[in-house]
Structure prediction request, 164 residues.
Amino acid sequence: MKKVAIIMGSDSDLPVAEKAVQRLDEFGVPCEVHIFSAHRTPDEARDFALHARSSGFGVIIAAAGMAAHLAGAIAANTTLPVIGIPLKSKNLDGVDALLSTVQMPSGIPVATVAIDGAVNAALLSVEILALEDESLAAKLEAVRAADKAKVLEKNAAVEARFNR
Ligand code: RP5
Prediction:
């Protein structure tokens, strides 16, 4: 199976990035975690992106906060799908990173999830890898069914309490 790369701009991003690692682990999807910054270590970020496909990666998740150029900088140097996670920061609550990550010019796509949306970034990665992997697709179906059952159970409890 191809690997997922989780790149973050700083070790301060780890609490959010770890949620993606955890979700990928639950699906048995192999991943690597790295700190590469578009601003502080641009050469390392570029080098990783240039070799990601030949290194066995299928998807790259890039998580960064503030003036978040990491996902775009990675996408500039690979044709692998890149998923950007804009991260919340204290001054602008992540809107800065959201706009920096989502507003890519035509030709260099970044699939941007919600602010701090690590779980959806992981799930989207799994969905991409599941295009060529039936057992992974079956796991996705099973997780959706389990999530649905939980919501229906909550609904039943609320209806029993309030609708007499
Ligand atoms: C971004 O700047 C990082 O992704 C991080 O979210 C933010 C702040 O980094 P630190 O100053 O905490 O290292 O590049």
Observations:
- The longest helix spans residues 134-162.
- The chain has a mean pLDDT of 98.
- Residues 9-10, 12-13, 37, 64-66, 87 surround 5-O-phosphono-beta-D-ribofuranose (CB under 6 Å).
- The chain has six helices and five strands.
